[in-house]
Write a structure and sequence with these properties.
heterodimer; A: alpha/beta; 3-stranded parallel sheet; 2 helices; 25% helix; B: alpha/beta; 7-stranded mixed sheet; two-stranded parallel sheet; globular
Chain lengths: 96, 466
């Protein structure tokens, strides 16, 4: 006998696309979005210095350039600030 | 940021990948993203962060070379799944095996959500099965009346329960509840659904003895709460340790679904739904808050105290219990709740006879649960208040002693539980808001109730057969 049952996981809609990657970080502006937790205050400045050393002309904005905190990262106002800053890429940390 | 066309890489914990994929899916992207992950120790104070430098190329690649797997790019449609078996018994066994291997269940036996069973549940729907209620965060699967019925079918529910589940799901999806974060958070939040109105008794929802636990006389709360939990996991991706980082996950088999003991309310005491949400008494409704703990409080005095002494001592003991530097109350400091205090009808009656009102009880508890600033500083709680996003919460640091909520009315006080004076019960709040919803019923609801009486017999307070 064949029994049929509903898929318990429902429908997942993909309505948006991921961003295209950039070909180099050299000469690009990079921003941080951080919850200011889980040692982000140590790790993200390290990444800033690494990128600026490895890619000539790269500008990595300070970690406090945009609002910080778990509640602040996903807000429309934060997104608007990031876009207004004309960053080419973003690093988010620390998800933990 | 990805959705805005800005390539993004995330630095996170290794076992946080599921949470992150859920969050990405929840905003409509394919459930994948550029991540560089590390084990937990690097995220702790004083850690060695050299691995970040050693793996710097992975961050660069995340911004310059990361690609989405082609298989992850498409929408996933809910569908019927076929299962071949030589009997229903075999099919049920096989389905429960599949529920374990496919991570659809809670580890306990489930009913098979066949088309027939789900259609039966849908008889309780006040709206078409395709009606969309929203998306279940953080994964973001579409929530429909039908998907609620599927979960309720799996959880052993009945059609007359569906209206309560639908109202609870609507409240759960209210953006003010912060469900997108609570679903994944480590603090083990679970929904508390308080039901008011005649539907409590009609569907055999417990309001009295054992109302937070198993009870064959009142099976509705367990099925409704279990169905909501299954939706949180199956549609929302809140799988323990993968999509839900709740350390302990207490109360999560069935969440907490109970009715207020309206019949036990003292004269002049409005039901919770009227007090908190403004619904007229007698309105079928639910009120949803999140809690992160559940504890019994022994409130009765033991020897020859007078009625006044017994009441006052019990009040102080409950206030003492609330006066913990409980950081879970911070998200709900302004608009949510520090918790749900349940008191039995006999206690409410005696308190009312002594002149207490719901408001005066809340104000007493609020006043006497304030925490000296010295203790907040000693426990490091101050920093959690300082980093809160709400300026009102941050400004509360000027208060000494510090109240556990911005105002006394935030505390939820309900009359529920067995009619015995010794204990009250505290559901520790972790709730940015408290959402209320009216319960809509289908046109032939009385027929469903009569069928329930036929199927289950006339319980002590459920039978509607004349």
């Amino acid at each position: 006998m064949r029994f049929e049952f509903h898929d318990p996981t429902g429908t997942l809609e993909v309505t948006q696309s991921h961003a295209a990657r950039i070909d180099t970080l050299a000469g690009k502006r990079i921003g941080f979005l951080t919850n200011e937790q889980w040692q982000a205050h140590r790790m993200l400045p390290l990444l800033k210095s690494l990128i600026e050393n490895d890619f000539p002309g790269a500008e990595v904005l300070p970690i406090d350039r945009f609002p910080q905190g778990n509640a602040e990262i996903p807000t429309e106002s934060t997104t608007a600030l990031v876009k207004a800053a004309e960053v080419d890429a973003v690093i988010v940390g620390n998800a933990s | 940021m990805e959705a805005e066309g800005i390539p993004t890489v995330t630095l996170g914990r290794a076992d946080f990948v599921g949470v992150f994929k859920n969050a990405v899916a929840g905003i409509g992207l394919a459930p994948a993203a550029a991540m560089v992950t590390f084990p937990m120790p690097i995220f702790l104070p004083g850690s060695d962060i050299a691995p970040v430098q050693a793996r710097k190329q992975e961050f660069y690649d995340g911004l310059m070379r990361w690609k989405l797997d082609s298989g992850a790019a498409a929408s996933e449609r809910g569908h019927m799944i076929a299962l071949d078996a030589d009997s229903y018994e075999s099919a049920l066994t096989r389905f429960n095996q599949l529920a374990i291997s496919n991570l659809w269940g809670d580890g306990l036996p489930l009913w098979l959500p066949t088309r027939e069973r789900v259609d039966w549940i849908l008889r309780g729907a006040p709206a078409p099965e395709s009606t969309v209620l929203g998306k279940m965060p953080p994964r973001g699967a579409v929530v429909t009346v039908e998907s609620c019925a599927v979960a309720l079918a799996m959880a052993g529910g009945r059609p007359e329960y569906l209206p309560v589940l639908l109202a609870a799901v609507e409240a759960f999806l209210d953006p003010a509840m912060g469900t997108d974060q609570l679903q994944a958070a480590s603090g083990s939040a679970f929904p508390v659904v308080i039901v008011n109105g005649p539907i409590r008794k009609q569907i055999r929802l417990n309001t009295g003895f054992g109302c937070l636990g198993p009870d064959p006389q009142h099976p509705a709360g367990a099925s409704i709460g279990r169905a909501l939990r299954l939706m949180q996991q199956n549609l929302g991706g809140a799988l323990p340790g993968t999509g839900a980082m709740a350390n302990y996950g207490g109360m999560r088999y069935t969440n907490a679904v109970f009715g207020e003991d309206e019949e036990g309310l003292p004269s002049g005491w409005p039901p919770h739904a009227s007090e908190r949400h403004g619904f007229s008494p007698g309105t079928n409704s639910i009120s949803l808050a999140f809690a992160s703990g559940a504890a019994n409080i022994r409130r009765r005095s033991a020897r020859k105290e007078t009625a006044e002494e017994d009441a006052l001592q019990g009040m102080y003991r409950m206030a003492d219990f609330l006066r913990a530097p409980n950081l879970h109350c911070i998200p709900g400091y302004v608009d949510g709740t520090p918790g749900v205090l349940m008191i039995p009808n006999i206690v409410a009656q005696r308190m009312a006879e002594l002149g207490w009102t719901q408001r005066s009880i809340r104000e007493f508890l609020w006043e006497h649960s304030k925490i000296p600033m010295e203790l907040l500083k000693r426990s490091g709680s101050v920093s959690w208040i300082e980093v809160d996003s709400d300026p009102v919460t941050r400004a509360s640091l000027a208060l000494d002693p510090w109240p556990i909520a911005a105002k006394a009315d935030n505390l939820i006080l309900v009359v529920a539980g067995g009619g015995h004076p010794t204990n009250s019960f505290w559901l520790q709040g972790y709730s940015p808001s408290v959402a209320g919803r009216r319960i809509a019923l289908p046109a032939d609801y009385d027929k469903l109730l009569a069928e329930a009486d036929r199927d289950l017999g006339c319980g002590s307070d459920a039978c509607t057969i004349g």
